[in-house]
Amino acid sequence: MKVGFVGLGLMGRPMAGHVAKGGHSLHLWARRPESLAPFADSGATVHASIASMAREVDVLFSMVADAPDVEQVALGPQGVAEGAAGRTDLVFVDMSTIAPDAARNIAGQLAAKGVSMIDAPVSGGEVGAINATLTIMAGGTQDAFDRVLPLFQLMGKNVTRVGDSGAGQVAKACNQILTGVGVLALAEAFAFAEKSGVDAARVREALLGGFAYSRILENHGQRMLDRNFKPGFKSWMHQKDLRIVMNEAHRMGLALPSAAAAAQMLNAMVGQGLGEEDSIAVLKVLEDLGGVER
């Protein structure tokens, strides 16, 4: 297939690379020339605009920051809709994390112009993108999903069509609730152990063999012990995702007290200048609040 890609950051760059390695014709657009530099020897076709790319490719992916960015890519000047005018066979796949209602709205406007859309946010972070082990949660029609599935399988190991437009974003919101609350709970447990004068590493070792086991305890727990706060997933991005969760919860009149607590802690992290660190750096905030010496 001819495959377009917009958004060549920490996640998008390796994802696009996997598509190229899978034998497909890669087409790219980027605001900054340095984003294209890693593809200089890949044989990729670089376009002057997203619209130019949309005229030529079979599937066009975006991996950008938030809903306004997706709207700009899809519906803005020289965007997907403009380039796809007269076509009925283009599939636009947004792999960003945005609000479900925003995904449904963009999908509806594109459908009116003959473009199918899949919302397909991911979990797994930069490591998952590099290793092609992402979890991909998709929303859209079965036909569009089936067309894109071979490309998804180049990027991830667990690919699920959750439902119609917006369903992928709902699944991602659920994922962010679980990971946000899980990371906060783990940080609280370690802060409790440290304040009690007990080695958190030995506590983790004990808990790994019990009902409290989780991948968060295994992976993020070791990173907390190593004081490795290098971002696999930046705090400001997790803050944004939980803001989406809480906005949706308010709209539906749904109580999410644990998610609300996690969202507030992420707000505190960003407010303290930790937005560029991994969300597991919430441990630092709890240690400061509790007077835990490190």
What does this structure look like?
This protein is of the alpha/beta class and 294 residues long. It folds into 2 domains: 2-164, Rossmann fold (3-Layer(aba) Sandwich), CATH 3.40.50; 170-290, Orthogonal Bundle (N-(1-d-carboxylethyl)-l-norvaline Dehydrogenase, domain 2). Helices cover 53% and strands 14% of the residues. It has helices spanning 12-21, 33-36, 50-54, 67-75, 80-83, 100-111, 125-131, 142-155, 167-195, 200-207, 215-225, 235-252, 257-271, 282-290; strands spanning 2-6, 25-29, 45-46, 59-62, 91-94, 116-119, 122-123, 134-139, 156-163. The strands form 2 sheets. Strands 3-2-1-4-5-6 form a 6-stranded parallel beta sheet, sandwiched between helices. The protein has a 3-stranded mixed beta sheet with strand order 7-8-9. Strand 8 (134-139), helix 8 (142-155) and strand 9 (156-163) form a beta-alpha-beta unit. Helix 10 (200-207) runs antiparallel to helix 11 (215-225). The longest helix is centred in the middle third of the chain and has 29 residues, at 167-195. The chain is elongated.
